Amino acid sequence: MRALILLRLLAASLFCSAQFPPEPEGITVLRSQFNNNVTISYKETFICETTPGVRGFSGYVHIPPNALAEHGIKNQTWEINTFFWFFEARKDPHNAPLSIWYYGGPAYSSSGMPLSYNGPCKVNPDGNSTTLNPYSWNNEVNMLYLDQPVQVGLSYSTFHNVTVDRVNETITPLPEGSSVPEQNTTLLVGRYPANDTYKTSMGSTDAAYAMWHFAQAWFQEFREYQASSISLSGVSYAGKYAPAVFEFFEEQNERIRQGKWPTKGEQYILPLNMLLIENGLFDLPGQWFSYPEFAVDNTYGIQAVNDTVYQTMTNNLNKPGGCLDQAYQCGNLSLQYDPQAIGVNETVNHICAEAGNYCDENVQHLYSYSNRSYYDITVPASLSREPPFAHAFLQQPHVQQALGMRSNWTVRSDDAIRAFRRVGDFARPGWINKFGYLLDRGIKVALTYGDRDYLCNWISGDAASLAINYTDTANFHAAGYEEIHTNCSYVGGLVRQYGNLSFSRVYQGTHGSAELQPETALQIFNRAIFEKDIATGTVSADGYSSKGIRDARSVKNEVQTDWMEIKQVCYLWDLQGTCTDEQIEMVDNGTAVIKDYIIVDKNSTERYPEIVGLGD
Length: 616
Prior knowledge:
Blueprint: H1 2-16, E1 28-31, E2 39-45, E3 56-63, E4 80-87, E5 98-102, E6 121-123, E7 130-132, E8 142-146, E9 159-165, E10 170-173, E11 187-193, H2 204-221, E12 230-235, H3 238-257, E13 272-278, H4 284-287, H5 290-296, H6 307-318, H7 323-337, H8 346-362, H9 389-393, H10 397-403, H11 414-422, H12 431-440, E14 444-450, H13 458-467, H14 473-478, E15 481-485, E16 491-498, E17 501-506, H15 518-529, H16 575-578, H17 581-589, E18 594-595, E19 598-599, H18 602-607, H19 609-612
Parallel strand pairs: 5-8, 5-12, 12-13, 13-14, 14-17
Antiparallel strand pairs: 1-2, 2-3, 3-4, 4-8, 6-7, 9-10, 9-11, 15-16, 16-17, 18-19
Helix pairs in contact: 2-3, 3-12, 5-6, 7-8
């Protein structure tokens, strides 16, 4: 009886953070001095980054319909309202460089990352407060986190009200004018971006066009942060987003320099500095060979799949009509009939979509037979190291008000994912070529890979780095792998570097090195952006060539077993990712005891006694 009474009391508090966001207050609206149809709405933020004197801002850049028509995007009848969260550098912000940061996916939100990954803070287990992160990337760099493409995270074209079933992870639109249903622990209501796969970006190139218009507006209105250099960093599918964005930015810069872009208010030359990609996905043919290989032959000595699965993966990759054949067909047709890769040819869209789906299902996803994590080959697929406390934090009314949210936050947009899938963005070619173009324009490229990740593994990243064709390709190939000295007592990995191009393998890193190796990830980021050698951070990168071993695979890793000590906790904001079937059933039938979104049991009382108590 005590448990049931407690559940009812807790449920009442849970509902408070599951309602529609409050109407934003204290919003400043700037109308572009160049275009009355472009506005920025924002407010100063005082959460997450609490270092005295360090400022932050969050808000939206509102781009009108048909803004992309001049780039060949027809029928853009919706607004592009892109959410940003900006943090000043903790050190000398008005002279610091600036980096934009993207999550991958595609279509995963970046606005949760300041709270859980490489940003100024980490959310505490209560889901309602934060602790400063000493390894934040804004220590010396101004950071601008963007939810992109539109409909992702807090970015929107239009809104609709929905119900959310936590157990089944289903979202159902509420008919216009209907009453709000009664909520309970598993049924919530919220305001989400419109679920329309045709009101978002149709692939990475389309997204790049939208981001250029965002950048023109943002940097010209926030003039105090017109840094001497702008970088772009991201993880995973950012390997496609980011080079597409920076290539288009630089092409537009050149048009402006030559007087070929006459649009008033869109003539700011963006000073591009560096592109940093963590565990990036680039070109399908050049990287997918690594899936069967990494599954059985990795530096951790783990054979994740048996010989039968390995042979099936290899056969499906290489056989006539298999993954590579379909990818090459997609690439050839795309270059011929849709060279901009913006989805203008339905035949190409279909062939490329089918290629991506075939390769996913018949090569990449056969790894699921291993029952190991896609993001960390050393641990079980079921392992959740820590509940996603940031998910709860972003649903708190005071946080929604502090950020000026127009909708409830979501971790991803399935509709935007479907839009990318529909045009075959996964299988389209040419992303590695964009790196060569940028390098020959003097823009740095840093590729960094946690070496425990299967999904975007370091073997594929190493191959991608060697496939980049630019002026100094031979010099890059001639460079050796040198140890990365994270600090005076720890070696964090290996790096091959020549001048502006580097490839880093981060020891014991996962799908994004900042998760488990935050200091090494920060050092690589800072050294790259400030034009130093990645190995030590003490030598100018200009003309620098790393020295060391020729074969990075010769350096083996020990499998760490610390995960075995983790007491896994079931969390209400991620039932499918953190809970057993029995725990989910208890939540569903109302017999679970829940405190601050944590399901109370032996594990949670031992791990978070300050939240759930010590038990009876």
